[in-house]
Amino acid sequence: MANNPEASQSSSSITEKVYDGPDPIVSVPAANPLGSSTVPAELTEQDPQDNNTLCHAALDNTPAEVGHAADYDNRLDQEEPYGWVVVAAAFCVQAMTIGTVNGYGVYQDRYIKHEYSNSTTFQLAWVGTLNVVGMDLVGPFTGQFADYYGYRLSTFIGALIMGAALVATSFSTQVWQLYLFQGLGYGIGGSLAFFPSIALPSQWFNKRRGFATGITVAGGGVGGLIMSPLSTALFNSIGYQWTVRVTALIHLVVLIPVAYLFRSRIESGRGRKLRKKLEDADRELKIATNNNTSNLHSDEKTDESSERGLEVQPLEKEPPRQKLLDFSVLKDRKFFVLVCIGFFTTMGYFNPYYYLPTYVRNRGISTETGALLVGLLNGASAIGRVSMGIASDHIGDINTLFISTLLSSLSVLLIWMFAGSSVAVIAIFCFVYGFFSGSFIAVLPTVAAHLCGIERLASVTGIVYFGVAAGTLVGSPAGGAILDVSQGLNYRPLQIWVGLVMGVGAILSIVLKFWVNPSIKGRV
Protein backbone atom coordinates (compact mmCIF):
# COMPACT_ATOMS: atom_id res chain seq x y z
CA MET A 1 0.00 0.00 0.00
CA ALA A 2 1.10 3.58 -0.48
CA ASN A 3 2.81 4.96 2.58
CA ASN A 4 2.18 8.74 2.24
CA PRO A 5 -0.93 9.38 0.20
CA GLU A 6 -2.60 12.76 0.03
CA ALA A 7 -6.33 13.22 0.39
CA SER A 8 -8.95 15.42 -1.17
CA GLN A 9 -12.22 16.36 0.47
CA SER A 10 -15.58 17.34 -0.96
CA SER A 11 -18.74 18.44 0.79
CA SER A 12 -20.21 14.98 0.48
CA SER A 13 -17.37 12.62 1.42
CA ILE A 14 -13.67 12.18 2.09
CA THR A 15 -11.72 9.79 -0.17
CA GLU A 16 -8.65 7.96 1.12
CA LYS A 17 -5.84 5.93 -0.52
CA VAL A 18 -7.26 5.15 -3.93
CA TYR A 19 -5.34 3.53 -6.75
CA ASP A 20 -3.98 5.88 -9.43
CA GLY A 21 -4.84 3.93 -12.56
CA PRO A 22 -6.88 4.13 -15.73
CA ASP A 23 -9.85 2.09 -14.49
CA PRO A 24 -12.58 3.07 -11.98
CA ILE A 25 -11.63 1.84 -8.52
CA VAL A 26 -13.24 1.26 -5.13
CA SER A 27 -12.43 3.68 -2.32
CA VAL A 28 -13.27 3.75 1.37
CA PRO A 29 -14.79 6.87 2.95
CA ALA A 30 -12.98 8.20 6.00
CA ALA A 31 -14.38 7.28 9.36
CA ASN A 32 -16.48 10.28 10.40
CA PRO A 33 -19.75 8.98 11.80
CA LEU A 34 -21.04 12.42 12.70
CA GLY A 35 -20.61 13.78 9.22
CA SER A 36 -20.44 17.35 10.53
CA SER A 37 -16.79 17.57 11.46
CA THR A 38 -13.53 16.17 10.17
CA VAL A 39 -11.70 16.55 13.46
CA PRO A 40 -11.37 13.26 15.38
CA ALA A 41 -13.00 13.45 18.77
CA GLU A 42 -9.90 12.17 20.52
CA LEU A 43 -7.89 15.16 19.22
CA THR A 44 -10.19 17.83 20.60
CA GLU A 45 -9.17 19.64 23.77
CA GLN A 46 -11.19 19.49 26.95
CA ASP A 47 -12.28 22.55 28.86
CA PRO A 48 -9.54 23.22 31.40
CA GLN A 49 -12.20 24.41 33.83
CA ASP A 50 -14.03 21.06 33.81
CA ASN A 51 -13.86 19.66 37.34
CA ASN A 52 -14.48 16.14 36.05
CA THR A 53 -11.67 16.05 33.48
CA LEU A 54 -9.25 13.83 35.38
CA CYS A 55 -11.94 11.42 36.51
CA HIS A 56 -13.22 11.05 32.96
CA ALA A 57 -9.72 10.76 31.55
CA ALA A 58 -8.89 7.97 33.94
CA LEU A 59 -12.04 5.96 33.40
CA ASP A 60 -12.91 6.58 29.76
CA ASN A 61 -10.68 4.29 27.74
CA THR A 62 -12.52 4.65 24.45
CA PRO A 63 -12.51 7.51 21.93
CA ALA A 64 -15.26 10.02 22.50
CA GLU A 65 -18.50 9.34 20.69
CA VAL A 66 -19.75 12.87 20.33
CA GLY A 67 -23.02 12.00 18.66
CA HIS A 68 -23.98 9.44 21.26
CA ALA A 69 -22.86 11.72 24.09
CA ALA A 70 -25.07 14.49 22.76
CA ASP A 71 -28.02 12.14 22.54
CA TYR A 72 -27.35 10.98 26.07
CA ASP A 73 -27.19 14.52 27.43
CA ASN A 74 -30.55 15.28 25.88
CA ARG A 75 -32.09 12.16 27.40
CA LEU A 76 -30.61 12.94 30.80
CA ASP A 77 -32.69 16.11 31.08
CA GLN A 78 -35.85 14.07 30.48
CA GLU A 79 -36.69 12.23 33.69
CA GLU A 80 -38.85 9.50 32.17
CA PRO A 81 -41.53 7.70 34.24
CA TYR A 82 -39.78 4.33 33.87
CA GLY A 83 -37.08 5.75 36.11
CA TRP A 84 -39.38 5.15 39.08
CA VAL A 85 -39.67 1.48 38.11
CA VAL A 86 -35.88 1.33 38.17
CA VAL A 87 -35.84 3.01 41.59
CA ALA A 88 -38.38 0.51 42.94
CA ALA A 89 -36.32 -2.41 41.60
CA ALA A 90 -33.11 -0.96 43.03
CA PHE A 91 -34.90 -0.45 46.37
CA CYS A 92 -35.68 -4.19 46.48
CA VAL A 93 -32.06 -5.08 45.72
CA GLN A 94 -30.88 -2.82 48.52
CA ALA A 95 -33.44 -4.32 50.91
CA MET A 96 -32.11 -7.82 50.28
CA THR A 97 -28.37 -7.09 50.19
CA ILE A 98 -27.78 -4.25 52.65
CA GLY A 99 -30.78 -5.22 54.79
CA THR A 100 -29.26 -8.66 55.33
CA VAL A 101 -25.83 -7.19 56.05
CA ASN A 102 -27.24 -4.67 58.54
CA GLY A 103 -29.16 -7.46 60.28
CA TYR A 104 -26.06 -9.55 60.94
CA GLY A 105 -26.01 -8.42 64.58
CA VAL A 106 -28.99 -10.71 65.21
CA TYR A 107 -27.05 -13.64 63.74
CA GLN A 108 -23.96 -12.80 65.78
CA ASP A 109 -25.97 -12.71 68.99
CA ARG A 110 -27.45 -16.11 68.07
CA TYR A 111 -24.02 -17.57 67.30
CA ILE A 112 -22.55 -16.41 70.63
CA LYS A 113 -25.38 -18.01 72.61
CA HIS A 114 -25.93 -21.22 70.64
CA GLU A 115 -24.21 -22.61 67.52
CA TYR A 116 -20.75 -21.08 68.10
CA SER A 117 -20.75 -20.37 71.83
CA ASN A 118 -17.09 -21.40 72.13
CA SER A 119 -15.99 -18.64 69.73
CA THR A 120 -15.02 -15.12 70.77
CA THR A 121 -16.79 -11.93 69.76
CA PHE A 122 -13.71 -10.99 67.75
CA GLN A 123 -13.86 -14.24 65.75
CA LEU A 124 -17.57 -13.95 64.98
CA ALA A 125 -17.28 -10.27 64.11
CA TRP A 126 -15.18 -11.34 61.13
CA VAL A 127 -18.23 -13.00 59.56
CA GLY A 128 -20.07 -9.69 59.25
CA THR A 129 -16.84 -7.93 58.32
CA LEU A 130 -16.07 -10.35 55.50
CA ASN A 131 -19.65 -9.99 54.35
CA VAL A 132 -19.20 -6.25 53.85
CA VAL A 133 -15.62 -6.59 52.64
CA GLY A 134 -16.62 -9.27 50.14
CA MET A 135 -19.26 -6.90 48.82
CA ASP A 136 -17.13 -3.77 48.67
CA LEU A 137 -13.60 -5.04 48.08
CA VAL A 138 -14.52 -6.60 44.74
CA GLY A 139 -16.53 -3.49 43.84
CA PRO A 140 -14.02 -2.27 41.22
CA PHE A 141 -14.28 -5.68 39.49
CA THR A 142 -18.04 -6.11 39.77
CA GLY A 143 -18.59 -2.48 38.77
CA GLN A 144 -16.56 -3.05 35.61
CA PHE A 145 -18.46 -6.28 34.99
CA ALA A 146 -21.82 -4.51 35.30
CA ASP A 147 -20.73 -1.61 33.07
CA TYR A 148 -19.51 -4.02 30.38
CA TYR A 149 -22.06 -6.86 30.41
CA GLY A 150 -25.07 -4.92 31.64
CA TYR A 151 -26.74 -4.30 34.99
CA ARG A 152 -29.50 -6.86 34.45
CA LEU A 153 -27.15 -9.82 33.92
CA SER A 154 -24.92 -8.75 36.79
CA THR A 155 -27.88 -8.62 39.21
CA PHE A 156 -29.20 -12.00 38.04
CA ILE A 157 -25.84 -13.71 38.60
CA GLY A 158 -25.48 -11.99 41.98
CA ALA A 159 -28.88 -13.30 43.12
CA LEU A 160 -27.88 -16.87 42.29
CA ILE A 161 -24.57 -16.57 44.15
CA MET A 162 -26.22 -15.06 47.24
CA GLY A 163 -28.84 -17.80 47.35
CA ALA A 164 -26.21 -20.53 47.00
CA ALA A 165 -24.00 -18.93 49.68
CA LEU A 166 -26.86 -18.81 52.19
CA VAL A 167 -27.80 -22.44 51.55
CA ALA A 168 -24.15 -23.42 52.10
CA THR A 169 -24.16 -21.36 55.32
CA SER A 170 -27.06 -23.41 56.66
CA PHE A 171 -24.90 -26.55 56.46
CA SER A 172 -21.82 -24.95 58.05
CA THR A 173 -20.46 -26.27 61.34
CA GLN A 174 -17.17 -24.35 61.67
CA VAL A 175 -16.48 -20.63 61.97
CA TRP A 176 -14.15 -20.72 58.95
CA GLN A 177 -17.07 -22.02 56.89
CA LEU A 178 -19.10 -19.00 57.97
CA TYR A 179 -16.21 -16.82 56.80
CA LEU A 180 -16.27 -18.51 53.41
CA PHE A 181 -20.02 -18.68 52.74
CA GLN A 182 -21.94 -16.14 54.84
CA GLY A 183 -18.99 -13.76 54.66
CA LEU A 184 -17.12 -13.76 51.35
CA GLY A 185 -19.53 -15.82 49.24
CA TYR A 186 -22.61 -13.78 50.08
CA GLY A 187 -20.60 -10.57 49.84
CA ILE A 188 -19.34 -11.25 46.31
CA GLY A 189 -22.84 -12.15 45.12
CA GLY A 190 -24.21 -9.07 46.84
CA SER A 191 -21.61 -6.91 45.12
CA LEU A 192 -22.81 -8.02 41.67
CA ALA A 193 -26.31 -6.83 42.55
CA PHE A 194 -25.50 -3.89 44.83
CA PHE A 195 -23.43 -1.72 42.49
CA PRO A 196 -25.91 -1.81 39.59
CA SER A 197 -28.68 -0.85 42.02
CA ILE A 198 -26.69 2.05 43.47
CA ALA A 199 -25.58 3.40 40.07
CA LEU A 200 -28.59 2.92 37.82
CA PRO A 201 -31.04 5.48 39.31
CA SER A 202 -28.57 8.29 38.59
CA GLN A 203 -28.96 7.56 34.87
CA TRP A 204 -32.68 8.29 35.05
CA PHE A 205 -32.68 11.41 37.23
CA ASN A 206 -30.87 14.73 37.14
CA LYS A 207 -32.65 17.41 39.17
CA ARG A 208 -34.07 14.82 41.60
CA ARG A 209 -31.04 12.55 41.66
CA GLY A 210 -30.52 12.87 45.41
CA PHE A 211 -34.18 12.06 46.09
CA ALA A 212 -34.12 9.03 43.77
CA THR A 213 -30.86 7.74 45.23
CA GLY A 214 -32.19 8.32 48.75
CA ILE A 215 -35.26 6.19 48.05
CA THR A 216 -33.05 3.50 46.54
CA VAL A 217 -30.66 3.18 49.46
CA ALA A 218 -33.54 3.45 51.93
CA GLY A 219 -34.18 -0.12 50.86
CA GLY A 220 -31.22 -1.16 52.98
CA GLY A 221 -32.81 0.35 56.07
CA VAL A 222 -36.25 -1.09 55.34
CA GLY A 223 -34.69 -4.48 54.65
CA GLY A 224 -32.87 -4.38 57.98
CA LEU A 225 -36.07 -3.27 59.72
CA ILE A 226 -37.82 -6.36 58.35
CA MET A 227 -35.02 -8.94 58.36
CA SER A 228 -33.83 -8.47 61.96
CA PRO A 229 -37.15 -9.19 63.74
CA LEU A 230 -38.07 -11.76 61.06
CA SER A 231 -34.84 -13.70 61.59
CA THR A 232 -35.32 -13.70 65.37
CA ALA A 233 -38.90 -14.97 64.99
CA LEU A 234 -37.82 -17.69 62.56
CA PHE A 235 -34.97 -18.78 64.86
CA ASN A 236 -37.54 -19.43 67.57
CA SER A 237 -40.06 -21.18 65.32
CA ILE A 238 -38.19 -23.25 62.71
CA GLY A 239 -34.60 -23.19 63.98
CA TYR A 240 -31.36 -21.69 62.73
CA GLN A 241 -30.70 -23.86 59.66
CA TRP A 242 -34.13 -23.50 58.11
CA THR A 243 -34.14 -19.78 58.87
CA VAL A 244 -31.07 -19.34 56.69
CA ARG A 245 -32.58 -21.50 53.92
CA VAL A 246 -35.83 -19.54 53.95
CA THR A 247 -33.77 -16.35 53.72
CA ALA A 248 -32.01 -17.79 50.65
CA LEU A 249 -35.38 -18.53 49.05
CA ILE A 250 -36.60 -14.99 49.75
CA HIS A 251 -33.51 -13.63 47.99
CA LEU A 252 -34.19 -15.67 44.85
CA VAL A 253 -37.92 -14.94 44.75
CA VAL A 254 -37.36 -11.19 45.07
CA LEU A 255 -34.14 -10.58 43.13
CA ILE A 256 -34.56 -12.69 39.99
CA PRO A 257 -37.76 -10.91 38.81
CA VAL A 258 -36.34 -7.55 39.91
CA ALA A 259 -33.23 -8.06 37.75
CA TYR A 260 -35.40 -8.05 34.62
CA LEU A 261 -36.80 -4.62 35.53
CA PHE A 262 -33.36 -3.02 35.31
CA ARG A 263 -32.99 -0.96 32.15
CA SER A 264 -29.93 1.18 31.43
CA ARG A 265 -30.01 4.45 29.50
CA ILE A 266 -26.31 4.15 28.72
CA GLU A 267 -25.04 1.55 26.31
CA SER A 268 -23.06 -1.22 28.00
CA GLY A 269 -19.43 -1.72 27.06
CA ARG A 270 -20.24 -5.01 25.35
CA GLY A 271 -23.16 -3.44 23.47
CA ARG A 272 -20.98 -0.55 22.35
CA LYS A 273 -18.33 -2.97 21.08
CA LEU A 274 -20.88 -4.98 19.10
CA ARG A 275 -22.42 -1.82 17.65
CA LYS A 276 -19.03 -0.62 16.45
CA LYS A 277 -18.42 -3.94 14.71
CA LEU A 278 -21.78 -3.71 12.97
CA GLU A 279 -21.14 -0.12 11.90
CA ASP A 280 -17.74 -1.06 10.49
CA ALA A 281 -19.22 -4.00 8.60
CA ASP A 282 -21.98 -1.80 7.19
CA ARG A 283 -19.80 1.04 5.90
CA GLU A 284 -20.55 1.96 2.35
CA LEU A 285 -17.88 1.53 -0.30
CA LYS A 286 -17.92 4.45 -2.70
CA ILE A 287 -16.81 4.37 -6.30
CA ALA A 288 -14.50 7.08 -7.48
CA THR A 289 -13.78 7.63 -11.14
CA ASN A 290 -10.35 8.01 -12.69
CA ASN A 291 -10.89 11.74 -13.18
CA ASN A 292 -11.46 12.25 -9.46
CA THR A 293 -8.44 10.27 -8.30
CA SER A 294 -5.72 10.35 -10.90
CA ASN A 295 -3.53 12.87 -9.10
CA LEU A 296 -3.95 11.74 -5.54
CA HIS A 297 -0.84 9.65 -5.05
CA SER A 298 2.00 7.81 -6.66
CA ASP A 299 1.92 4.90 -9.07
CA GLU A 300 3.52 2.58 -6.53
CA LYS A 301 1.78 -0.77 -6.29
CA THR A 302 2.13 -2.29 -2.86
CA ASP A 303 0.02 -5.43 -3.05
CA GLU A 304 -2.09 -7.56 -5.33
CA SER A 305 -5.31 -5.82 -4.40
CA SER A 306 -3.82 -2.47 -5.45
CA GLU A 307 -3.10 -3.86 -8.90
CA ARG A 308 -6.77 -4.78 -9.18
CA GLY A 309 -7.74 -1.25 -8.15
CA LEU A 310 -8.75 -2.07 -4.59
CA GLU A 311 -7.01 -1.14 -1.35
CA VAL A 312 -8.11 -2.28 2.11
CA GLN A 313 -7.49 0.22 4.89
CA PRO A 314 -8.48 0.23 8.56
CA LEU A 315 -11.43 2.60 8.86
CA GLU A 316 -10.48 4.03 12.22
CA LYS A 317 -8.10 3.59 15.07
CA GLU A 318 -8.93 0.59 17.25
CA PRO A 319 -9.88 1.81 20.74
CA PRO A 320 -7.55 0.74 23.51
CA ARG A 321 -8.62 -2.30 25.50
CA GLN A 322 -10.47 -1.38 28.68
CA LYS A 323 -8.52 -2.14 31.84
CA LEU A 324 -10.01 -4.69 34.20
CA LEU A 325 -9.05 -2.65 37.25
CA ASP A 326 -8.09 1.01 36.90
CA PHE A 327 -7.22 3.03 40.00
CA SER A 328 -5.71 5.98 38.09
CA VAL A 329 -8.81 8.01 39.00
CA LEU A 330 -7.30 8.26 42.50
CA LYS A 331 -4.84 10.79 41.07
CA ASP A 332 -7.67 13.29 41.38
CA ARG A 333 -7.18 14.63 44.92
CA LYS A 334 -10.90 15.30 45.41
CA PHE A 335 -11.80 11.74 44.51
CA PHE A 336 -8.99 10.41 46.70
CA VAL A 337 -10.37 12.36 49.68
CA LEU A 338 -13.83 10.92 48.98
CA VAL A 339 -12.35 7.41 49.20
CA CYS A 340 -10.66 8.38 52.50
CA ILE A 341 -14.00 9.66 53.84
CA GLY A 342 -15.52 6.29 53.05
CA PHE A 343 -12.60 4.54 54.75
CA PHE A 344 -12.65 6.43 58.06
CA THR A 345 -16.43 6.72 58.38
CA THR A 346 -17.05 3.02 57.84
CA MET A 347 -14.37 2.14 60.39
CA GLY A 348 -17.05 3.13 62.88
CA TYR A 349 -20.25 2.81 60.86
CA PHE A 350 -21.12 -0.88 61.31
CA ASN A 351 -20.15 -1.22 64.98
CA PRO A 352 -23.53 -0.13 66.42
CA TYR A 353 -25.33 -2.45 63.99
CA TYR A 354 -23.18 -5.42 65.00
CA TYR A 355 -22.78 -4.88 68.75
CA LEU A 356 -26.05 -3.27 69.81
CA PRO A 357 -27.82 -6.64 70.36
CA THR A 358 -25.09 -7.83 72.76
CA TYR A 359 -24.99 -4.38 74.39
CA VAL A 360 -28.69 -4.46 75.31
CA ARG A 361 -28.57 -8.14 76.38
CA ASN A 362 -25.64 -7.46 78.72
CA ARG A 363 -27.76 -4.77 80.37
CA GLY A 364 -30.60 -7.13 81.13
CA ILE A 365 -32.78 -6.20 78.18
CA SER A 366 -34.52 -9.07 76.36
CA THR A 367 -33.31 -10.42 73.03
CA GLU A 368 -36.64 -9.54 71.41
CA THR A 369 -36.30 -5.91 72.54
CA GLY A 370 -32.76 -5.87 71.21
CA ALA A 371 -34.00 -7.08 67.81
CA LEU A 372 -36.64 -4.33 67.80
CA LEU A 373 -33.98 -1.72 68.61
CA VAL A 374 -31.87 -2.96 65.69
CA GLY A 375 -35.02 -2.73 63.60
CA LEU A 376 -35.49 0.88 64.76
CA LEU A 377 -31.88 1.58 63.82
CA ASN A 378 -32.55 0.30 60.31
CA GLY A 379 -35.92 2.00 60.02
CA ALA A 380 -34.43 5.37 60.99
CA SER A 381 -31.70 4.71 58.45
CA ALA A 382 -34.34 4.32 55.74
CA ILE A 383 -36.01 7.59 56.72
CA GLY A 384 -32.66 9.38 56.84
CA ARG A 385 -31.61 8.15 53.42
CA VAL A 386 -34.73 9.54 51.77
CA SER A 387 -34.85 12.77 53.80
CA MET A 388 -31.18 13.64 53.38
CA GLY A 389 -31.36 12.59 49.75
CA ILE A 390 -34.00 15.29 49.26
CA ALA A 391 -31.84 17.71 51.25
CA SER A 392 -28.86 17.03 49.02
CA ASP A 393 -30.87 18.22 46.00
CA HIS A 394 -31.21 21.60 47.74
CA ILE A 395 -28.05 22.13 49.81
CA GLY A 396 -25.64 19.97 47.80
CA ASP A 397 -24.44 16.42 48.22
CA ILE A 398 -21.04 17.27 49.74
CA ASN A 399 -22.67 19.53 52.34
CA THR A 400 -25.05 16.67 53.14
CA LEU A 401 -22.09 14.30 53.46
CA PHE A 402 -20.52 16.59 56.08
CA ILE A 403 -23.73 16.90 58.09
CA SER A 404 -24.31 13.14 58.11
CA THR A 405 -20.79 12.19 59.20
CA LEU A 406 -20.61 14.91 61.88
CA LEU A 407 -23.97 14.13 63.50
CA SER A 408 -23.34 10.38 63.35
CA SER A 409 -20.14 10.92 65.30
CA LEU A 410 -21.80 13.21 67.85
CA SER A 411 -24.72 10.82 68.40
CA VAL A 412 -22.28 8.12 69.53
CA LEU A 413 -20.24 10.42 71.77
CA LEU A 414 -23.14 12.35 73.30
CA ILE A 415 -26.04 9.85 73.41
CA TRP A 416 -24.88 6.22 73.27
CA MET A 417 -22.01 6.78 75.72
CA PHE A 418 -24.51 7.93 78.36
CA ALA A 419 -27.43 5.61 77.54
CA GLY A 420 -26.70 2.99 80.19
CA SER A 421 -29.57 0.51 80.46
CA SER A 422 -32.33 2.99 79.57
CA VAL A 423 -34.34 1.57 76.69
CA ALA A 424 -35.72 5.04 75.91
CA VAL A 425 -32.27 6.64 75.57
CA ILE A 426 -31.00 3.69 73.54
CA ALA A 427 -34.02 4.09 71.25
CA ILE A 428 -33.23 7.80 70.82
CA PHE A 429 -29.67 6.90 69.90
CA CYS A 430 -30.88 4.28 67.42
CA PHE A 431 -33.10 6.82 65.68
CA VAL A 432 -30.54 9.66 65.55
CA TYR A 433 -27.61 7.46 64.56
CA GLY A 434 -29.67 5.48 62.06
CA PHE A 435 -31.05 8.66 60.48
CA PHE A 436 -27.71 10.38 59.87
CA SER A 437 -25.48 7.36 59.29
CA GLY A 438 -27.98 6.14 56.71
CA SER A 439 -27.74 9.43 54.84
CA PHE A 440 -23.97 8.95 54.64
CA ILE A 441 -24.61 5.80 52.62
CA ALA A 442 -27.14 7.67 50.46
CA VAL A 443 -24.88 10.52 49.40
CA LEU A 444 -21.67 8.60 48.66
CA PRO A 445 -22.82 7.65 45.12
CA THR A 446 -24.15 11.14 44.38
CA VAL A 447 -20.85 12.73 45.44
CA ALA A 448 -19.04 10.27 43.16
CA ALA A 449 -21.36 11.31 40.32
CA HIS A 450 -20.74 14.97 41.21
CA LEU A 451 -16.98 14.52 40.90
CA CYS A 452 -16.72 12.08 37.98
CA GLY A 453 -19.99 12.03 36.03
CA ILE A 454 -22.32 9.06 35.61
CA GLU A 455 -21.37 7.28 32.38
CA ARG A 456 -19.41 4.61 34.28
CA LEU A 457 -20.75 5.27 37.75
CA ALA A 458 -20.78 1.59 38.73
CA SER A 459 -17.00 1.45 38.18
CA VAL A 460 -16.37 4.73 40.02
CA THR A 461 -18.64 3.77 42.91
CA GLY A 462 -16.86 0.42 43.08
CA ILE A 463 -13.57 2.22 43.74
CA VAL A 464 -15.21 4.38 46.43
CA TYR A 465 -16.54 1.26 48.11
CA PHE A 466 -13.10 -0.30 47.92
CA GLY A 467 -12.20 2.31 50.55
CA VAL A 468 -15.38 1.43 52.43
CA ALA A 469 -14.30 -2.22 52.42
CA ALA A 470 -10.88 -1.35 53.80
CA GLY A 471 -12.49 0.69 56.61
CA THR A 472 -14.85 -2.14 57.46
CA LEU A 473 -12.00 -4.64 57.41
CA VAL A 474 -10.25 -2.61 60.11
CA GLY A 475 -13.13 -1.11 62.07
CA SER A 476 -15.50 -3.93 62.97
CA PRO A 477 -12.86 -6.49 64.08
CA ALA A 478 -11.13 -3.71 66.01
CA GLY A 479 -14.43 -3.07 67.78
CA GLY A 480 -14.72 -6.77 68.62
CA ALA A 481 -11.16 -6.85 69.94
CA ILE A 482 -11.88 -3.80 72.11
CA LEU A 483 -14.91 -5.55 73.61
CA ASP A 484 -13.00 -8.79 74.22
CA VAL A 485 -10.53 -6.90 76.43
CA SER A 486 -13.34 -6.26 78.93
CA GLN A 487 -15.12 -9.54 78.14
CA GLY A 488 -17.98 -7.57 76.59
CA LEU A 489 -18.77 -5.64 79.78
CA ASN A 490 -17.30 -2.19 79.10
CA TYR A 491 -18.55 -0.49 75.93
CA ARG A 492 -17.05 2.95 76.63
CA PRO A 493 -13.76 2.34 74.72
CA LEU A 494 -15.74 1.03 71.73
CA GLN A 495 -18.00 4.07 71.75
CA ILE A 496 -15.02 6.44 71.87
CA TRP A 497 -13.39 4.54 68.98
CA VAL A 498 -16.53 4.76 66.82
CA GLY A 499 -17.10 8.45 67.55
CA LEU A 500 -13.52 9.48 66.81
CA VAL A 501 -13.03 7.66 63.51
CA MET A 502 -16.36 8.93 62.20
CA GLY A 503 -15.27 12.41 63.31
CA VAL A 504 -12.23 12.09 61.04
CA GLY A 505 -14.64 11.42 58.17
CA ALA A 506 -16.47 14.65 59.03
CA ILE A 507 -13.23 16.66 58.99
CA LEU A 508 -12.29 15.25 55.58
CA SER A 509 -15.76 16.13 54.30
CA ILE A 510 -15.06 19.78 55.16
CA VAL A 511 -11.75 19.56 53.29
CA LEU A 512 -13.51 18.17 50.22
CA LYS A 513 -16.16 20.89 50.36
CA PHE A 514 -13.61 23.72 50.30
CA TRP A 515 -11.59 22.08 47.54
CA VAL A 516 -14.69 21.93 45.37
CA ASN A 517 -16.16 25.30 46.40
CA PRO A 518 -14.26 27.63 48.79
CA SER A 519 -17.41 29.58 49.64
CA ILE A 520 -18.72 28.81 53.14
CA LYS A 521 -22.35 29.17 52.04
CA GLY A 522 -21.81 27.59 48.64
CA ARG A 523 -24.15 24.82 47.53
CA VAL A 524 -21.93 21.88 46.68
UniProtKB/TrEMBL annotation:
InterPro entries (alphabetical): MFS, MFS_dom, MFS_trans_sf, Proton-linked_MCT
Gene3D superfamilies, sorted: MFS general substrate transporter like domains
Membrane topology, record value: Multi-pass membrane protein
Major facilitator superfamily (MFS) profile domain mapped to chain residues: 83-521
Compositionally biased region (Basic and acidic residues): 297-317
GO cellular component, one term: membrane
GO molecular function, one term: transmembrane transporter activity
Segments passing through the bilayer: 82-104, 124-141, 153-172, 178-199, 211-230, 242-262, 335-355, 370-388, 400-419, 425-451, 463-482, 494-516
Record's keyword terms, sorted: Membrane, Transmembrane, Transmembrane helix
Claim: Ribonucleoprotein is one of the keywords in the record: no
Origin: domain of life: Eukaryota
Pfam families in UniProt: MFS_1
Segments of skewed composition (Polar residues): 1-15
Region (Disordered): 1-49, 289-317
Matches recorded under CDD domains: MFS_MCT_SLC16
Location within or outside the cell: Membrane
Family: Belongs to the major facilitator superfamily. Monocarboxylate porter (TC 2.A.1.13) family.
Protein name, UniProt field: Major facilitator superfamily (MFS) profile domain-containing protein
Source organism per UniProt: Lunasporangiospora selenospora
